[in-house]
């Protein structure tokens, strides 16, 4: 029959229906075949009917689904799919469902034919009940099948063929995926079951059932079918998908089950370095893995399913994406992950933070990232005060963990924040830092009177501190110090009305101020080749360019807010995040080397952001700080003051410092333990950090000065 129909279509002009096809449509042949398939009479008939429907939809070029005598039996046949797992017809069922999905992807409007009956039924509620022929035959409501949201990357035509052929390309996945998609088969919770009874979005429900198949290939193809459906742009289908199916529950329940299946303790390095996860290729063989560790299979399964959720939300139509992401936040992040992150067991904190770090690195969907950010940081955008830093308990706890008694927990939490800051989401930096700098109340500002104006015109800055008289700078030669006029020219503009001086002149002064911070007797880099300040310039340029691309769409101002418009009377609090970072920076001479590297890494990432207030607060050594305020530069100045006192107490300080640097660079073999090792390593990190800040300042000024 199929051969006759295909031959007939080939012999006729495009779009013309032949007599055989007319007969098939008018005499309800597909209805008859459906009835035989449902009864599986004779035995094996269901398999044949599914194969016939699949080939008919796949090989006939003219649109068939709009015909009521096609889409009605197709709807009914969809109901039969996924009813029982591991049936002999499972392969035919998934191929049939996938060809329907591909057809809908090709022509999204077709989804309305599948939704039409449901919408009619809803419209007719409360009025005369209409009993259709289908209801009489099947004793169940007319179904609505299909569609969803978004715009996947593949072309519609290729999508169908690709998803139909994937089965042959996944020869090894059946056994391997069974761990995450069968053994971890989620029996929906009682509330999920209650919410999902008597639903009639059968194309989605059948695919959801088949994602639990013991055969990994079937499960993967079911996931691919769902990926096509969520990307359909029809609003009615999107609404039906999120309100009338168990899709959100399936995603979140399986995430929770896979997360809970992980060992209580996992090595953070294993979590970080496990191979890049692709949800469709979760084929892991413990026997073949030379780098296996306990829990690796469970970890790969969890990360694989998270990647699927991420990709699904990324491809989905907007309203569907938002609904799915909110479900992940409420039912997985808050209900499952938050208690683990808030616990007091150090092993538990370390493992859960490492998993959160991995999730932050892995997420690519903007909508899911938004929900992840709100989960970690909360939604607050008003300036912080010391009394309300605990408003969002998880944010408060994670920031506190940056200064945890366990160095491992501190480093892991700092790394999580470092990667979070690099994500393309404006709320992250605003919530952590920018909201506290908006009013620029870290500056001491006197309204300019005529006397002050005269002083400025004469090359002096009103209220400026003369660093030449600062005891910390007595070791600097006159060539390295700046005149008052140069200090003025080095400061960024205070408002758009005051044009900036030449950028290259400014950068020279700023760079020198950072490079001269560490006294000569505490410097060791000039004894070792290839460790000069210029080595940081290339990295700073590349990173700053990347940050500018990320921040471009946030429409940040090009210059600081005018002081006349700022509330300088408000008390300044740098915020919980910077407070903890500054405290750790202040202890750089007494902390382990690895902790110092991570603290300075986060601060340098913050300094790279192209926002004028961040630049002014973190990278302008000449900003006139209000009483009681501290900045990054003032913190480093205090550290240098402490260092200069402590240097005097250590005999042979410079040779020891040079030896430690060479050991860290691998230029000297490990030898006897050197006294004051933590201090010496801290001095080296401090020197390198000042060079890095100088390079960042140079790159930022150079970029802003270039037209």
Automatic annotation (TrEMBL):
Pfam families, alphabetized: DUF5917, KELAA, RAI16-like
All residue ranges annotated as the FHF complex subunit HOOK-interacting protein C-terminal domain in the record: 574-666
Highest taxon in the source lineage: Eukaryota
Signal peptide interval: none
Region described as Disordered: spans on this chain: 134-172
InterPro entries tied to this protein: FHIP, FHIP_C, FHIP_KELAA_motif
Homology family: Belongs to the FHIP family.
Record-given protein name: Family with sequence similarity 160 member B1
Species of origin: Zosterops lateralis melanops
Phylogenetic classification of the source organism: Eukaryota, Metazoa, Chordata, Craniata, Vertebrata
